[in-house]
Amino acid sequence: MHFADALTQATKTKSAICVGLDPNVSKLPEGITQDAEGMLLFCKGIIDSVKDVAGCVKPQMAYFEQLGWEGMKVFWETCSYAKENGLMVIADGKRNDIGSTCEAYADAYLHELSPIDALTVSPYLGSDGIKPFIERCEKNDKGIFILVKTSNPSSGELQDLPVGDEAVHEHLAQLVEGMAAQCIGPETNLSCVGAVVGATYPEELKYLRTLMPHVPFLIPGYGAQGGSAEDIAHGFIADGTGAVVNSSRGIIFASSGKDWKEAAEIAAVDMATTIGALFQ
User: Is 83 one of the catalytic residues?
Assistant: First the structure.
């Protein structure tokens, strides 16, 4: 199934929440060893807790990479476990390069048998660093989310710089929409080419939705980073689809005690209920 169609189906069947799997070993809850074995146990426990309410999970690759080859083994096992439990998987690696290196990144994460459904991609090198990913998306029913307006405080140092009468992120949004319009899903009006747009900049989020009508949004910055439900509402299309909203710490570290799995489930249900109420 086309990526955007599958993502839309997941958000309608479950919810638009995306649970960020950021397994910082120094923060693992009580009773979990601070090593690769503990990381896998934690990730599987979170997946078990949220699988009935979340549409997708987003493993943050940096935390797995910290543990070397053992961590990367856990990463792939985590992605496979999430898929086996009916979740879509967005690998947050922010990959980018040109030429054969970019081809290699695209093949590594978006091949036909990969448990990864989508990958975050940096646009800094221009279309040369994006096209190989799109080609794999079209071939293998995968997706990408291109960084357009990120949620961090210093994002404006580059992303808000003026380019004629518009900002860099606005110009980039138009480039992304142009790419996205070439690969629309047969069941939706959305593309396999998505965009990362932060909840911490609600006015920009609202305007960027008008510039990218065919682009699924991955919206970070909700909750712990300050984004509210009212803020993220601007990123959806009128029928309440077209976006997934990420929360990491607010769900996976809702408790550091022995009740960490129960607390994660409660936090996920609360978030799904809050976001769902926006479109009732």
Answer: no
